[in-house]
Amino acid sequence: MEKERHVLVVFPHPDDEAFGVSGTIATHVENGTNVTYACLTLGEMGRNMGNPPFTNREKLPKIRKEELKAAASVLGIQDLRMLGFRDKTIEFEDDEKLTNVISALIDELNPSLIITFYPGYSVHPDHDATGAAVVRAVGKIPAAARPKLNCVAFSNNCVEEIGEPDILNDISPVTKKKLAAIQAHRSQTEQMFSNMGEKLENKDPEVMRWITNERFWTYEFK
After folding, report:
1. In which band, very low, low, confident or very high, does the pLDDT at 210 lie, cut at 50, 70 and 90?
2. What is the pTM of this model?
3. How far does the signal peptide extend, from start to end residue (predicted)?
C-alpha cells in the first residue's frame, strides 16, 4: 500500500471497520498516513449482547461506543468521529442532508483515499445508504480533483455483477492488530471467536485467508 495524504473511512456501525478493512487501516497507520474513521451510528439496534450476555438494550449504545473507541485505539486511528445518526435508519435519512455531512468531512480533511461500502452490494440497508451518500459526495467533486474511492462489497452477487475486486490487500503483517480490533467489539464477536478459536489457533487455511485478505472495488463514476 502506498502512503496516502489522508484516509477517510466511512461506515455506519461500530465493527464495520474491524472485519473488512482493519488490516488496511492498520497498514496505512504504520505507513505514517493519518486515518479518520467516521462512524454514523453506535449500532444501538444490534441484537448481540455478548456471550454470555453482559449488557441489555438500554446499555448497549454505551457499550458499543467504548468498544469502538477500543478498536480505534488498537488500530492507531488518530481521528474517530461518531456522527450521531440512529442505527437502522440511515436509509431513511434525507439524501441531501447525508451527502452534505460527507461533503463537509471531505472538504475539511482533503483525503486522497476514501473507504466505504459499495452501494447495492453490501447486504445491510445502512451499509448501502452510507455507501450511496459517499458516492454522491465524491461525485460532486470535479473528476480531476476526486479522491480515490475504494468500496467493500460482500453480497452473493457482487462478483457476478461488478466483477472481481480491483484491490486485494494481504494484511498478514498486521494480523494480530486485526484480530484485536475484532475482539474489541466484544458484545458482537464473542460468539464468533468461541466458535472459531481452535481454527485460529491451528491457523486453519480457510480462516486465515478470510482474515488476511481484504478486498476492495474501485468505484467508477459514469
Report:
1. confident
2. 0.95
3. none
